[in-house]
Amino acid sequence: MNKKVLASFFATVLAVTTLAGCGGSSSAGTPALGSTDGSAPAANASAGKQTDGKNLPTLTTEPLTITLWDIATEEPAKSAQEGAVQRFMADYPNITVNQVHQQNDNYKQQLVVAMSSGQAPNMYIHWGGGPMAEYYKSGFANDITDMYAKYDHPDFVDAAVAQSTYDGKMLAIPFGGLSGCDIFYNKTIFKENGLEVPKTIDELETVCAKLKEKGIVPFSLANASKWTGSMYYMYLVARHSGNAEFDAAYTQENGGSFTSDAFVYAGTKIQDWVKKGYFPDGVNSLTADDNQDRALLYDGSAAMMLHGSWQVAGIKTDNEDWYKENIGVFRFPEDSEAKAKGVPQDVEIGTAIGNGFSFNCFNADKSVNQEMLDACYVLATQYYNDDTYNQMQMEGGNIPSIKGFDSKVDDPNNKVVVDVFFNASNVQLWYDQYLPASVTEVHKNCMTELFGLEKTPEQIGQEQDDAMKKAIAGQ
Amino acid sequence: MKNDNKVGLAQARAKSIAVAATVFLLPALLLITIFIIYPVIDTFVISGYKWNGISSDRIFAGMENWNALIHDEMFWKSFRHNLIVMVFSIVLQIPIGMLLATFLDAGGKKFNIFKIIWFLPYLMSSVAIAFLFNYALATNGGLISSFASLIQGKKATIDLLGTAPNALYTVIGVMAWQFTPFYMVYFIAGYGNIDTSIYEAAVIDGATRWQYIKHIAIPLLGPIFKTACTMSLIGSLKYFDMIWNMTQGGPAGSTELMATYMYKLSFQQFNMGYGSTVAAGMFLLITAIALIFNKAFKVKEDY
């Protein structure tokens, strides 16, 4: 009798814990399979697949399930990405794609937890840079260099391929479109005050001084998010030294340091601007997540905002008429002194891949699960990144990082963004994506301290050096 | 059940009680083992490794992480923040909770409406509270800044969360707002536990309400005080959720607590090994402080 009681207790407890274990992984809504809502043009079997005639791996005819994680919780990304998956499943009915939309805020942590507990998705979104390298080194990203060379794929721009590569290996297929970083400004305010778009940093400072005189905050910045303030820092460094000093600081070799000339220049400039009131009050407690920086542009209290080009889509969605009437964009002004010394002024900040998909298709013995990898490759290159998908991307204000799309842009501001991007000699990925994860945290804290005037540019340089040295030693 | 002659009734009864106790305790014990004991042990095990949290190979590092922890300024800084939070939590939440409870106890049923209203903050989730206060304290269009602008007649910015010393005290204030109701209810229960005969005896002896509270009720609440302090102490040393949602430890680490630091290391910076060391260090520190506290404040429970 005792045995029975015990057994049933154990069974109950086990059932409870199993359920608890499942709860975490499937909390985000999984769209009902096969619920084509009519928006996706159903390519039925008789019309052939949209991959027919292309040089692609032959996919299995056996049942196969792929788990895909993305962060498309909101429109328009949601329909665009669900559409791609639906088209794929319509063409390959034996393959089931279990598409899970994760919340962006804690997505990276979710992914780490999933990987450490053996629940990692087979195909997952990321932003390239340091984390992508970490996933690969830990055995959660397939090396697709050979497949990429052998099979068809969209003609991605070089910068996108470069940012999908780590250590000479292709690890991701881009699908999020490129993002530049430029200064958005209120055309009306500029016109009313007789201001011209500045070409050099000196001119920019003159503009700021004039705006300040009129009681308008020159830059809208929400620096509680920290990566927003980092944009100013990155650009000032890039204009003062091209890529040279950042690359040197990144390796910490040959005298490279975050305390070198360009970093001190950038930090000093920023603190000077803070002291002159060129940024809003309480800059460190405004957050970009709920668009408090955009809000300052909207109510006319600020005139300019250095930000990622996704702002075009954002502002447009908020109020298209206001956007058309008031918002212009210009590239970050040049450093005329550095230019005279021959420092290139066409190193830009941004990302060429936006988001990439990496694949985690391995068998239990850690050999590559080629069957699944083939399917993921076809899905990522031919259904994401297909005409329908790209069309939806363009409508949402995103620019696919595929050659030729620069000429199709019709939004005047996006045209500027694209021109800046395609004329760049080099596109530096955001520091907070590019640096190793431990350094990123330090860098972001440094941005708070810099804008809060709590530490000098030399001090934050030193902190970043220490973190970088530690990260290099730890590898 | 067959009753052998050799086994006495008392023995049989003792045996069946033991069996029943085992059966009833097993599920709880099992759950505690799975969700508390095992993770704690595993945390200590992982703290000896260099591990990014996802890779299959962990490199054994011996005491390297622990050595780093002892010299880690950021860890001790967050520990100091925890101590500040702890002191202020005890100093703010418990006396205020006590005052409110005394007020409600004196008022009886007609003050029930206050009881309900004052208890509401505790019913809200920490995340909701974090967002609520983030909006209220926002420098651009937040409640406080807008109010200040109204009074001054020009745009005023009161930056409570964006600058270094303010942020920590602001967060402590919000925590007090959240948890005081809990202690209020706790003390109401404490008052309720005091036998009415004691109150009646005091009244017959001519004690005023105030004298009763000062000389009889409060001393009798001693054990309750101690438990409340211990709970507040442990709670503020391991606090995480609301701080994480309000400031994420910022600006520049000025509201970093041990728990937020641990979370950042483990899940954002690919440093699960060291993150576990921080967690283990937290475990040791909190246990030590709680033990010392219990030893230092021995309260007699009899009257």
Describe this structure in words.
The complex is a heterodimer of chains A (475) and B (303). Chain A is of the alpha/beta class and 475 residues long. Helix content of chain A is 48%, strand content 12%. Chain A is globular. Mean pLDDT of chain A is 85; it is low at 9-46. In chain B, helix 12 (258-268) packs antiparallel against helix 13 (272-296). Chain B has a two-stranded antiparallel sheet with strand order 1-2. Chain B is mainly α and 303 residues long. Chain B is flat. The interface between A and B is large, with 47 and 39 residues.
What is the strand content of chain A?
5-15%
Strand order of the largest sheet of chain B: 1-2
Largest interface: A-B, 47 and 39 residues
Biggest beta sheet summary of chain A: 6 strands, mixed
CATH superfamily of the largest domain in chain A: Periplasmic binding protein-like II
Count of helix runs of chain A: 21
Number of β-strand runs of chain A: 13
Radius of gyration of chain B: 25 Å
Q: Any descriptors?
A:
heterodimer; A: 475 residues; alpha/beta; D-Maltodextrin-Binding Protein, domain 2; 2 domains; six-stranded mixed beta sheet; 48% helix; B: 303 residues; mainly alpha; two-stranded antiparallel ribbon; 2 strands; flat
How would you concisely characterize the structure shown here?
The complex is a heterodimer of chains A (475) and B (303). Chain A has 475 residues and is α/β, with parallel strands linked by helices. Chain A is 48% helix and 12% strand.
How is the topology of this model organized?
The complex is a heterodimer of chains A (475) and B (303).
Chain A: H1 2-25, E1 64-70, H2 77-91, E2 95-101, H3 107-116, E3 123-126, H4 129-137, H5 145-150, H6 158-163, E4 165-166, E5 169-170, E6 173-174, E7 179-186, H7 187-192, H8 201-213, E8 217-219, H9 227-241, H10 244-251, H11 261-275, H12 292-298, E9 302-308, H13 310-318, H14 320-326, E10 327-330, H15 336-340, E11 347-351, E12 356-359, H16 370-383, H17 387-395, H18 412-422, E13 426-428, H19 431-434, H20 437-451, H21 457-474
Parallel strand pairs in A: 1-2, 1-3, 8-9, 11-13
Antiparallel strand pairs in A: 3-12, 4-5, 6-12, 7-9, 7-10, 7-11
Chain B: H1 9-46, E1 49-50, E2 59-60, H2 64-70, H3 73-107, H4 112-123, H5 126-137, H6 143-152, H7 164-193, H8 196-204, H9 209-220, H10 222-237, H11 241-246, H12 258-268, H13 272-296
Antiparallel strand pairs in B: 1-2
Helix pairs in contact in B: 1-13, 3-7, 3-10, 4-7, 10-13, 12-13
